[in-house]
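Workshop exercise sheet. Pairs work together: one partner reads the sequence aloud, the other fills in the structure field after running the prediction. Swap roles for the next sheet.
Pair: D.N. / O.F.
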Amino acid sequence: MMRRLWNVFVLLVCIGLCAGCERAETLITQTTPTPTILSQWAIAAEASSQFGFPDWSVTRATGAPEVNACEDDSRAWASARGNGVEWLRLTYAQPVYTTEVRIYQTLGRGAIFRVSLVDESGAAQRVWEGEDTDRTCPGVLSVVVPQTVERIVGVHIDLDESRTGFWNEIDAVELIGVR
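Structure field:
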């Protein structure tokens, strides 16, 4: 009789331990969601100037890239003068903790000298400053950053077209980050 009670006791303890394991596993699964990487194109843009409208206008820098050649193409944004300091600011639909910005250029690489990220409060944080020395055309200036602490909703690009002596045309700007 004692042996039978002992076996029942051991069985109950084992069942209790196993049930505890399942609950712990469920809790861990619920508290560690998998991050979602989002790649998105600008939905709106503004600039210091634009060459024309609708051709070469600031709206040409929104959406996915359309230009596949190194040429003056009206489907990309171009500034009015092509020989001074200009800026382009883009807005995105989904705020993300940014990890990368890709700027698709179709003409005049080398004019971009600064890239800043704009958070939900409107504050801009510089993430890259320098010289785009890659002259591949068309080409992509990729700015990889450590994942931001703040959620980002915009990208601000500063250009100095006197560096190249010609227009820099931007077809699209991709924002990549974690939702």
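Discussion prompt: The domain at 37-178 is CATH 2.60.120.260 (Jelly Rolls). What would you look at next?
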